[in-house]
Amino acid sequence: MSDPEEALLAFWRERHYATLTTARPDGTPHVVPVSVTYDPDAALARVVASAGSRKVRNIRAAGPSGMPVALCQVAGRRWSTLEGRAHVRTEAPLIAEAERRYAERYGREPRPNPERVLIEVAVRCRMGRG
């Protein structure tokens, strides 16, 4: 692809995993692998997670203003980072939409999880080489 912007967006549609970086209550980074979907039109990234996971607890501990986070995926020399503010969402329709997008990107339904929540990231900055 000759358009760098389109190449970067295409990279976020391919089947890759990413890392999510949050901050623990003591300020140290917590980096974990995640499945993520990115909607550039809405400037939203979505990660489905278990309510009791460390990443969810970290974001919730930040309070109602959310937490600055980074999502990064890499494949060979291609990489991209999405930065933004994360909030934990529990609304069933939002979780269902995130699950639908997950199935579309990863080619399978997410495993059943009655404790599922949505980490929604309002993307403010996108960088990389796609």
**Parts with pLDDT < 50 across at least 5 consecutive residues:** none
Counted by DSSP, the helix tally is 3
Strand sequence of the main sheet, in spatial order? 2-1-5-6-7-4-3
The share of residues in extended strands comes to 35-45%
Q: How would you state the average pLDDT, rounded?
A: 96
- The portion of residues assigned to helices is 10-25%
CATH architecture call: Roll
Order of helix and strand elements from N to C terminus: HEEEEHEEHE
- CATH superfamily placement: Electron Transport, Fmn-binding Protein, Chain A
Distance between the termini: 9 Å
The fold-level CATH name is: Pnp Oxidase, Chain A
Rg (C-alpha, Å): 14 Å
Number of strand elements: 7
- The total domain count is 1
Q: What is the overall silhouette? A: globular
Q: How is the main sheet built? A: 7 strands, antiparallel
Organism: Streptomyces oceani
GO molecular function: coenzyme F420 binding; oxidoreductase activity, acting on the CH-CH group of donors
Keywords: Oxidoreductase
Domain Pyridoxamine 5'-phosphate oxidase N-terminal: 5-123
